[in-house]
TrEMBL record:
PANTHER family: PERMEASE PERM-RELATED, TRANSMEMBRANE PROTEIN. Residues 1-40 are annotated as: Disordered. GO terms for biological process: transmembrane transport. Its main location: membrane. Belongs to the autoinducer-2 exporter (AI-2E) (TC 2.A.86) family. It comes from the Bacteria. It comes from Streptomyces brasiliensis. This is AI-2E family transporter.
Length: 429
């Protein structure tokens, strides 16, 4: 009485769990391991979209990289034109401030530059052509002098006729003539490409200078007022720094031209003024290889006068180049563009590595502009008046000498008498 009866659960066959055989019991199902595919599972909805998006990003990156490499030449030309426009901006603004239209002022500036450049090239070309003709006419005399020197030095019996026939019938001369004839087309193509590049730079720089206010207005129209002030200030700094850089280059070109003119005039080399201007302009405004191009022409002209004069010109060019690199250029460039000489030198190296000769030419004004613009956002403090900042040690922190320390040890020996004022005989306490 009072006992309750519990009924054991049965399965589909009517057997209870106790009646079921041991082999029929199955372990509970385990969840699939992470990373294993579940049969019958569907692909997540976001996976196809992610794959399409990744492929699209890769395609856009490849297209952008291809377009950038195709347009790198145009971008470099635009960059050169922008800095050229910054360089002539002060002259154009000065003329526009006196009532002249900016387009006409820009045209007059470019016309003046074109006239000066054309006159210099014409004068230099006529001088070079005259010297080449003179060298060709005097070549037999030069050859005779060389043959006589060889015969006297090495006890040979060379004749000019034999040397000329050997040169005319040599395989080297025939191959050189064939190569030169085949390279005329390549040279013509390069000249046409250079003229087209020069025209592109001139057009872009003209538009940048003539429409400078409109360009600044268009840029500022998409920026908030605070950003507009920063952009205008950066533009003004870029104009000042670029003008200062060109001023320093022009001053160094003047110094270099005068120095080489004095040397060439002292040696009696013809066309010394034109050669001095050539050396000054080419060595300063053609980076990296400008020095070698500038010194080659005076050496060639000096060789027509006396072969030893060419050697003296080479020695002077090398010595002056070292003086300019380590003395004149760092000091003058750092004052005009207000950057440290080491920074100026490093910026030229970095610009050459990135953009070649163009990067070397615009590296210093670009770094000077960036340094001046970022200088306004760097908070500076007054430096404490410490002797270590001045590059010397204070007398209070100076370590005693060896003799002073020896006297102090001798006075501090056991049994030594210390004066009443506590000061030893050498002045130390």
């Amino acid at each position: 009485m009072g006992e309750t009866c519990t009924v054991a659960p049965t399965d589909e066959t009517g057997r209870t769990a106790q009646d079921a055989p041991l082999s029929d019991t199955t372990p509970p199902a385990r969840p699939p391991a992470e990373g294993t595919a579940v049969p019958g599972a569907r692909m997540p909805r976001w996976l196809p979209r992610a794959m399409v998006l990744a492929l699209a990003l890769i395609a856009v990156f490849q297209l952008g990289s291809w377009a950038f490499h195709q347009l790198i030449g145009l971008l470099i030309n635009v960059l050169i034109a922008f800095f050229l426009a910054l360089a002539i901006e002060p002259a154009v603004s000065w003329m526009a401030g006196r009532g002249m239209r900016r387009g006409l002022a820009t045209f007059l500036v470019f016309l003046g530059l074109a006239i000066v450049t054309a006159g210099f090239i014409t004068l230099l070309g006529s001088m070079l052509a005259g010297q080449i003709i003179k060298m060709i006419e005097g070549f037999p005399d030069y050859l005779d002098s060389v043959i006589n020197w060889v015969n006297e030095t090495f006890r040979t019996e060379l004749r000019r006729v034999d040397v000329q026939e050997g040169l005319l019938h040599s395989d080297w001369l025939r191959k050189y003539a064939q190569t030169s004839a085949a390279g005329v087309l390549d040279v013509s193509t390069q000249v046409l490409g250079g003229l087209f590049q020069l025209l592109t730079i001139g057009l872009f720089s003209f538009y940048f200078a003539a429409d400078g206010p409109r360009l600044r207005r268009a840029i500022c129209s998409v920026l908030p007022p605070a950003r507009q002030a920063e952009v205008l200030r950066a533009w003004e700094i870029a104009v000042d720094k670029t003008g200062g850089y060109l001023y320093s280059r022009g001053l160094m070109a003047l110094i270099s031209g005068v120095a080489h003119y004095i040397l060439l005039q002292a040696l009696g080399v013809p066309y010394a003024p034109v050669l001095g201007v050539w050396v000054g302009l080419v060595s300063q405004f053609i980076p990296t290889i400008g020095t070698y191009l500038a010194g080659a022409l005076p050496m060639l002209i000096a060789f027509t006068v006396d072969p030893w004069y060419a050697l003296w010109v080479l020695i002077f060019v090398v010595i002056y180049q070292q003086f300019e690199n380590y003395v004149l250029q760092p000091k003058l460039t750092s004052k005009t563009v207000d950057i440290h000489p080491a920074v100026a030198f490093g910026s030229v190296i970095a610009g050459t590595a990135l953009l070649g000769a163009v990067g070397a030419l615009i590296a210093i004004p670009a770094v000077a502009t960036l340094q001046a613009f970022l200088g306004a956002y760097v908070k500076r403090y007054d430096v404490t008046d410490d002797p270590r900042v001045q590059g010397r040690r204070s007398r209070g922190t100076r370590e005693p000498g060896l003799l002073t320390r020896a006297r102090a040890l001798w006075a501090a020996r056991p049994g030594a008498r210390v004066p009443e004022d506590g000061v030893l005989e050498d002045g130390s306490s």
